[in-house]
TrEMBL record:
<dbReference type="InterPro" id="IPR004263">
    <property type="entry name" value="Exostosin"/>
</dbReference>
<keyword id="KW-0328">Glycosyltransferase</keyword>
<dbReference type="GO" id="GO:0016757">
    <property type="term" value="F:glycosyltransferase activity"/>
</dbReference>
<keyword id="KW-0333">Golgi apparatus</keyword>
<dbReference type="InterPro" id="IPR040911">
    <property type="entry name" value="Exostosin_GT47"/>
</dbReference>
<dbReference type="GO" id="GO:0000139">
    <property type="term" value="C:Golgi membrane"/>
</dbReference>
<protein>
    <recommendedName>
        <fullName>Exostosin GT47 domain-containing protein</fullName>
    </recommendedName>
</protein>
<keyword id="KW-0735">Signal-anchor</keyword>
<comment type="similarity">
    <text>Belongs to the glycosyltransferase 47 family.</text>
</comment>
<keyword id="KW-0808">Transferase</keyword>
<feature type="domain" description="Exostosin GT47">
    <location>
        <begin position="111"/>
        <end position="415"/>
    </location>
</feature>
<keyword id="KW-0812">Transmembrane</keyword>
<dbReference type="Pfam" id="PF03016">
    <property type="entry name" value="Exostosin_GT47"/>
</dbReference>
């Protein structure tokens, strides 16, 4: 009959509507999938809306007032009986075996799993509040005139690492380290004790008593007894901090400013590169980024700049010799100064007007001045024969710094002749490299990819297999065996063999 539709013709509008609906749905999915925010995850979205905070004081203030618990969580510790230690070891061995045999095609490079101890608040939150409530007291100075709180800031690596580890996972940017809640899942154990704050801000005997308490608390944990502390991370970045008891924790991985092979700060066998990790000081000046470097290039009219204490002890005696050799020379600025607020402004101004920055040894082979120069775009000239550098397994310092032996540096006329002979093209190349390298030395919250916190865990990944080797080996080597090798004998072997 005319005008009557067949079933097939009646289905066309329905099919067309369904096709349009599916097409729109597909377009929505494609837009969501390829939009800039998709796949970034919550941490990247957080990163896009939050500028990294690089000031220790500002970051700590925000954390204590807005993020720290009103009443610190109770400490979580376990009495380390033989049964508890054995059970933990069995669980850790079982989990490691499951990871090893579970999927042979699964990549071996997994994020490092870190268990952060929840210690009594006297070792953590109380010390942070102590700093926060007293840092404006500028009359609190060390014997050489440096502000105590500025020194604490320079060595505040323990704060920055802890802050990243305990941050909500949705706000963290680093992907090569994760915090775990169960000890048996951990590769490493982090000890969140603020040793530098306690050393500088507590009365001497009170501080020593707190050190002993921290020592007892940590070494009585099952995980410590299982490994002898070999998989525990101990931040002792100021060479005086934790000094009275740290010999009892020499198997732990120490986070240090340098090795100091002179023996003035660390006893033989306590520190060496196989076990420990060198971390940069926290910069005392603001970052001069690529744009700043470009704008300041024509203003860098000073050949060589130095501002700091001109007389130091131990390895720092080279400073007095350099001052005698360089003072009054054309293009050289050498100033006496400390790390106070006025000193910061003067140092930053001087470094941004200079091509080269002198970086001699301090009381120890390292000096915060090296990292101030790097983030200021001033090429460091390192005169420190015993210096060990942070992250040197990853970074090539020859691209950003010059190295001069102490004996050559004090030869009449040789030092400045060497600097003046460097070709301008090489200077420009090193300055460009400084702009790239500076992010490796800027601690921040949230911690940034390729920042110093990130490089800590990249370096730790290289140590992890060796750490587990020594743990397992120590568990099976029989007592009094001649093959039982302690830190002391390993260090002696390295020294005698010339390594």
């Amino acid at each position: 009959m005319a005008g009557k539709q067949s079933p097939r013709s009646r289905s066309y509008p329905i099919l067309l509507l369904l096709l349009i609906t599916l097409s729109l749905l597909a377009l929505c999915i494609l837009y969501f999938h390829f939009s800039p925010s998709h796949g970034a995850g919550p941490s990247t979205l957080y990163h896009q809306t939050q500028k990294p905070e690089t000031s220790f004081v500002a970051s700590l203030e925000h954390f204590l007032l807005h993020r720290s618990p009103k009443s610190p969580p109770p400490a979580r510790g376990v009495i380390a009986t033989d049964d508890v230690v054995r059970d933990l070891d069995e669980l850790m061995h079982r989990i490691e075996s499951e990871r090893l045999w579970g999927d042979p095609y699964f990549p071996a490079a997994m994020p490092i799993r870190v268990y952060v101890y929840e210690m009594p608040s006297k070792f953590t939150y109380d010390l942070l509040w102590l700093f926060r409530n007293t840092y404006r007291d500028t009359s609190n100075l060390t014997s050489n005139g440096s502000p105590v709180h500025r020194l604490i800031e320079q060595h505040s690596i323990d704060y920055w690492l802890w802050m990243d580890l305990i941050a909500p996972e949705s706000e963290r940017l680093l992907k090569n380290v994760v915090r775990v809640d169960r000890q048996e899942e951990a590769d490493l154990f982090y000890i969140p004790f603020f040793t530098t704050i306690s050393f500088f801000l507590m009365e001497k005997q009170q501080c020593k008593a707190l050190y002993r308490e921290a020592l007892n608390w940590v070494t009585n944990q099952p995980a410590w007894k299982r490994s002898g502390g070999r998989d525990h991370i101990l931040p002792v970045h100021h060479p005086w901090s934790f000094k009275s008891v740290r010999r009892f924790m020499k198997n732990a991985i120490w986070l240090l400013p340098d090795m100091d092979s002179t023996g003035n700060w660390y006893k033989p066998g306590q520190v060496f590169l196989e076990k420990d990790l060198i971390l940069p000081y926290v910069a005392n000046v603001d970052l001069c980024d690529a744009k700043c470097l470009s704008e300041s290039y024509s203003k860098r009219t000073t050949l060589l700049f130095f501002r700091g204490r001109l007389k130091r002890n131990a390895g720092g005696k080279i400073r007095a010799k350099l001052v005698a050799e360089l003072s009054g020379a054309e293009g050289v600025v050498i100033e006496e100064g400390t790390a106070g607020e006025g000193g910061k402004a003067a140092a930053q101004n001087g470094m941004r007007k200079s091509i080269f920055c002198l970086s001699p040894a301090g009381d120890t082979p390292s000096s915060a001045r090296l990292f101030d120069a790097i983030v200021s775009g001033c090429i460091p000239v390192i005169v420190s024969d015993e210096l060990e550098l942070p992250f040197e397994g990853i970074l090539d310092y020859r691209k950003i710094a010059l190295f001069v032996s102490s004996s050559d540096a004090v030869q009449p006329g040789r030092f400045l002749t060497f600097l003046r002979a460097i070709h301008p093209a090489r200077i420009r190349e090193m300055q460009r490299n400084l702009a790239k390298y500076s992010l490796h030395f800027m601690y921040s919250s949230p911690a940034q990819p390729l920042g110093p916190e990130d490089l800590v865990w990249r370096m730790m990944a290289g140590k992890l297999v060796n750490i587990k080797l020594h743990i397992r080996r120590s568990q099976r080597v029989v007592k009094d065996s001649r093959s039982l090798c302690s830190c002391d004998c390993r260090q002696a072997n390295f020294t005698s063999s010339g390594l």
